[in-house]
Amino acid sequence: MTSSSFDSVAFLKSVSSSAGVYRMYDGEGTVIYVGKAKDLKKRLSSYFRKNVTNVKTRALVSHIRDIDVTLTHSETDALLLENDYIKQYMPKYNVLLRDDKSYPYIFLSSHQHPRLAYHRGAKREKGQYFGPYPNGGAVRESLHLMQKLFPVRQCDDLYYKARSRPCLQYQIARCSAPCVDKVSDEEYQEQVKLATLFLKGKDQQVLASLVAKMEQAAQNMHYEDAARYRDQISALRRVVEQQEVSGSHGDMDVIGVYFASGVACFHLLIIRSGKIFGSRSYYPAVPDETELSEVLRAFMLQFYLNVDSQRTIPNEIIVSHEFEDIHELEDAVKQALEKNVSIKTKVRSERASFLRIADTNAKNAVETRLSHQNTVEQRFLLLEEALEQSQKINRMECFDISHTMGESTVASCVVFNREGPHKADYRRYNIHGITPGDDYAAMKQAISRRFDKVDVNGKIPDILFIDGGIGQLRIAQKVVNEKFAQLDVAPTLIGVAKGEGRKPGLETLIYGENEIAFNLPADSGALHLIQHIRDESHRFAITGHRNKRQKTRNTSTLESIAGVGPKRRKALLQYLGGLQQVKGASVAELAKVPGISPEMAQTIHDALRG
How far apart, in whole angstroms, are the C-alpha atoms of residue 476 and residue 494? Predict the structure, then answer.
């Protein structure tokens, strides 16, 4: 199949047979596909054969208006360049992995009394980094466990410097209070060493060291110390028994793959020193009619060549299916990241067991997602039927207002499509310039800002829900009428008024255009969908309001002081422990805060006292 606007015959005559990367463009000059080939002429010729059976390839070729090629010295170079181009252009016919999150680590500082902390991002601070962990929850859980096992501090350095007596963590035996010399430097460093060994997976070495210390303390008749070591050993043994999953002590990534009905899941088990650090599922965006082999190749390429994620890549990667360019990917990782890796698809014993776990989780994740999509789709159909919509509902939005006695007013806009919540399009609006507590004015401002400069090519919802009564709905309808006066399309507004006693299922629904009220049965799937988007808008609004209110209350007093910027505000609050402590501090105490001169301390002291 050839494009009427692209002369493939003439183009192929000039294409080299070298290795390289090709970019395909549509009529608007947008890159729609990026690929690499060992032999560019051979690969590109395959797209323009008369007997192409792949539906995706035929659709791609029908949109081609131009092709660029870039020659490379080797297949490895081509693979690296292909990955760079995919990240740059995000072509619609390529499988795209949106994994732009960096991975979290446990950080052990190089301080005189080192601290354990959560870390995400560039590794600028001196110290040791342990990980990566699959998500922030896994890091926090591990830090909580570390507190129980090793009395190493986890407080901020400013808080540490400001202590004049032990904090609560010392009282509950979660910290040895090096800030106020409750422990000797030697003993503290010994606990830091044990914590480091534990994070490296050397549990038996830690246990042996603790047993030796317990026996030595008993021989010296230091029975309280011996009892403390005994308790630490017992706690550590319980943890080791729960965590031990393998007799192996290697580092590896194990990836299970499942692909069905256009949904692909890659379930990653992160195994370090024979223990499962955690797991994480990835769902790349897959164009229609794409085959598993292409999805797998694209995932592996984009995942392991993504240097922005700050991941630590292990020496061994196990994946459940073979894919094209395995050896080229190994070479590319070595060249780009200076790391030797081995990618395996055939494994036995413990590794096969890990792979079965990953495969099972990938399959379950896809089936769960498909089931959820089917449920949401069914509820959309029921809503279309209940509202007697002639047009298909593809996008719904819901607005809500949140404040406390008029303070820190925030409006939320959440978006649902046929697959459920579409969080990338969620928006919050900080409301300004209104009478505190005026919900009507707040709604008017939020709706006006949402549809400011709206046009037919913008994201226009089919249904716009307003969480509130007839007053807020009238305001919203008036704004929409004004904003869409010159357009042929406009959203249908529906108010969601709370029922008696705010009980779910008793909501009254009101059309914005004619103000006709109606109800849906409490067990209706359509009502459940409306409740879902209403509750989500409420959650999103109240979260934003609480964050804004807390920020305002913490910083508003300090913000008005000349010379006190964000860094000094943060230093004051952290060093002294909060706004009330800052207000109660003397000039001498304020001057002890890093970055605060005696003159600035006097200025702050005078300003806070009026």
Answer: 10
CA distance 403 to 364: 41
Distances (CA, A) of 86 to 196, 235, 292, 539: 39, 49, 18, 36
Query: Which residues neighbour 130 within 8 Å (Cβ) at sequence distance 6 or greater?
Result: 105, 106, 107, 108, 199, 200
Query: pLDDT at position 101, please?
Result: 60
Alpha helices in 4-54 (DSSP H): 8-13, 40-47
66-99 tens-digit pLDDT: 999 999 988 888 888 998 899 889 999 999 887 6
DSSP 52: -
Query: Cα separation of 492 and 576, whole Å?
Result: 53
Quick one: DSSP state of residue 314? Answer: P
Q: What is the pLDDT of residues 250-284, one digit of tens each?
A: 788 999 999 988 889 999 988 877 677 778 889 99
The structure tokens 């028994």 sit at 241
The Cα–Cα gap between 313 and 567 comes to 35
Q: Is the pLDDT of residue 247 over 50?
A: no
Q: Does 553 have pLDDT greater than 80?
A: no
- Token pair in block for residue 444: 């008017």
Return the bridge partners of 400, or none. Answer: 412
pLDDT digits (tens, 9 = 90+) for 183-231: 999 999 998 988 888 887 677 787 888 888 888 888 888 888 788 778 7
Integer Cα distance of 326 and 342 in angstroms: 9
Residue 435: strand, helix, or coil: coil
Q: Which residues contact 527 (CB under 8 A, 6 or more apart)?
A: 386, 505, 507, 520, 521
Which of 114-123, 180-189, 546-555, 598-607 bottoms out in mean pLDDT, i.e. has the lowest? 546-555
Give the chain's mean pLDDT: 86
Rounded to 10°, the helix 349-386/525-559 angle is 100
For 441-505, the DSSP string reads HHHHHHHHHHTTT--TTS---SEEEEES-HHHHHHHHHHHHHHTTTSS--PEEEEEE--GGG-TT
Label residue 340 by pLDDT band (50, 70, 90): confident
pLDDT tens digits for 83-92?
A: 889 988 999 9
Q: How far apart are CA 170 and CA 88, in angstroms?
A: 51
Q: What is the pTM of this model?
A: 0.62
> Backbone phi, then psi, for 325, in 5-degree steps?
75, 30
**Range 371-383 average pLDDT:** 88
Rounded Cα distance between 165 and 390, Å, is 70
Q: Sheet containing 20-25: which strands, arranged edge to edge?
A: 31-37, 20-25, 66-71
3-state secondary structure 316-358: EEEECCCCCCHHHHHHHHHHHHCCCCEEECCCCHHHHHHHHHH
What is the spatial distance between Cα 103 and Cα 338, in angstroms, rounded to a whole number?
A: 19
CB atoms within 10 A of CB 601: 20
In 122-257, which ranges are continuous DSSP H helix? 136-149, 157-162, 168-171, 185-199, 203-219, 223-243
Angle at the Cα of 594 from the Cα atoms of 152 and 108, rounded to 5 degrees: 25
Give the rounded distance of the alpha carbon of 593 from its chain centre: 35
